[in-house]
Amino acid sequence: MIISHKYKFIFIHVNKCGGSSITDALIPQLGEKDIVLGVTPEGEKLSEQWRKTNGLHKHVKAAIAKEVLGEEIWNNYFKFSFVRNPWDLLVSTYHWWLSTKWDDDKQTGQQIRSMKNFEEYVLSPYCRKGNSLKFLCDENENILVDFIGKQETLERDFAYVCGRVGLPNIDLPRKNISKHEHYTSYYNDETKLIVKRKFNKDIKTFNYSFK
Questions:
Q1: Which first-to-last residue range defines the signal peptide (predicted)?
Q2: Is residue 110 part of a domain?
């Protein structure tokens, strides 16, 4: 998450949707009073501190951010986020668990790394749950942010964000990119349908398909 008072924007960071690259690109442009939660060592430390004190953190939901920051800031700042094709998202998340050194949830990591393959992951209770929309909506499913870009068109959509808030064109660094085959090769008919059902709202709202 980023709160920029200098450029009057709020970035809601949905995990595995290009947020680390976006954050790295924006940091050099930020003002002294701007807040970065997550991504950098300092940001990760601050994220854990703020999680305990006010509920804000790296992957905070928009509804919580709105409540904590208040109506004046929320209504006057440009809010944006990014999402990703759910079938691709799960493959990326699976590979992240296989390679991560993050140890805040050792049990989940150990369980996933002990699985035979991706299919077992999708069928397990450890598979990523729920739509990305849950990060961006209130309890009545109203979208709270002003713009939702896509990981698939990251550079184009990020350029729009920069122009919207008065930033120069910024090159995006490539960060946390998992190396694997195209996501479609990981699925069979059963797992493809499971993801379609589980992420139905994302698929419909953002017009995603399996291709």
A1: none
A2: yes
Residue 210 lies in a domain: no
Which residue segment(s) compose the domain that 86 sits in? 2-205
Question: Quick one: CA torsion of 190, 198, 202, 16, rounded to 10 degrees?
Answer: -90
CA distance 112 to 28: 36
- CA dist., res. 73 & res. 5, Å (int): 9
Phi, psi of 80 (to 5 degrees): -145, 160
Tokens of 52: 């305990």
Could you give phi then psi for residue 125, rounded to 5 degrees? Answer: -70, -5
Residue 140 has pLDDT above 70, yes or no: yes
CA 91 – CA 178 distance, rounded (Å)? 9
How big is the chain, counted in residues?
211
Residue 105's pLDDT band (cuts 50, 70, 90): low
- Can you give the CATH number for the domain in which 72 is found? 3.40.50
pLDDT, mean of residues 191-203: 96
- 65-98 per-position pLDDT tens digit: 999 999 999 999 999 999 999 999 999 999 988 8
Q: Model-level pTM?
A: 0.92
Residue 169 DSSP code: P
Strand order in the sheet with 35-36: 35-36, 2-4, 9-12, 78-83, 147-150
CA distances to 63, 136, 176 from 85, rounded to whole Å, are 22, 16, 17
User: Alpha-carbon distance 38 to 172, whole Å?
Assistant: 17
